[in-house]
Specification:
two-stranded antiparallel sheet, 4 strands, two-stranded antiparallel ribbon, Four Helix Bundle (Hemerythrin (Met), subunit A), 6 helices, mainly alpha
Length: about 180
Amino acid sequence: MSTSFHVPTCLAALTDIEADLTRLTTDLTECQFHAPPRAGGWSIGQCIEHLTLTGNAFLAKWDAAFKTPRASRDESFPYSWWQRGFLQLAEPPYRIKVKTSRPFDPYLRRPKEETIERFLRMHRQVAGRVSASQGVDAAAVKIDSPFVSRIRYPLGFSFDLALAHERRHLWQAWQVRRQFFER
């Protein structure tokens, strides 16, 4: 769990997430990719589609933040106790399950390769925004939450929150995958 925002750490986390996605999906059939867990819930494909939807929503918020005048300073800053706690709740294994809102509900079923490529395309854009935040006062620049309109986050915190959310749902997808390979 992140306790402060740091651009190189955030970029490394993006790389780790992509490697985890590759390990998760490499040997899955199309059928396994779309199969829901036995106990109900999202398939691996739906988890990844959800992450693409939320990532694209964050991208729009980050782009809006970059359009405003930006203060310049060292981009690293420590998180407050509530921010650290919020990130801890978002990280896997999660203790609190939250129902997603309609715009982030993965209702489309795309082929496995297309789903993965869409996620990776979005992820490259996220990496670009993180890199663009170098030299920006990532504590002072705020973004509107893509989930709850009345909440605003510091820019740097929003990057780490988006990545914690990705790790959460990739962990969820790994739980689904286990049903295919446990014997």
